[in-house]
């Protein structure tokens, strides 16, 4: 799976920290390779993760963002960068381009303004 370089580096560092946590734990960790775990190496409950991420956002003074919303943001940013929609579809794992374009792609206000400015230039040009 292709990843951003900064994500790959963060995951490598996380794996090192996690191995240290497992080694220092009083409880034996299960033999599964999970990225996100509880302090005893078991899967994180999605509701707990949502509450924890909401707390992190509150503590950082930033708006709360659901994990799933980050997928929408990723799609919109990639499309804004001019990445081919088919490539974006493959990156996020959609089976149909319609899902990527109609559900996940969000047009930024700046893009709307730019489009209307270009139309204005075309119509106003003499």
From TrEMBL:
Keywords for the protein's UniProt record, in alphabetical order: DNA recombination
Claim: Cytoplasm is one of the keywords in the record: no
Alphabetical list of InterPro entries matching this protein: DNA_brk_join_enz (IPR011010), Integrase-like_cat_sf (IPR013762), Integrase_catalytic (IPR002104), Tyrosine_recombinase_XerCD (IPR050090)
Pfam family, one: Phage_integrase
Keyword Lipoprotein belongs to the record: no
Residue ranges annotated for the Tyr recombinase domain, each copy included: 1-117
SUPFAM superfamilies: DNA breaking-rejoining enzymes
PANTHER family, sorted: INTA PROTEIN (PTHR30349:SF91), PHAGE INTEGRASE-RELATED (PTHR30349)
Protein name stated in the entry: Tyr recombinase domain-containing protein
Organism from which the protein derives: Angustibacter aerolatus
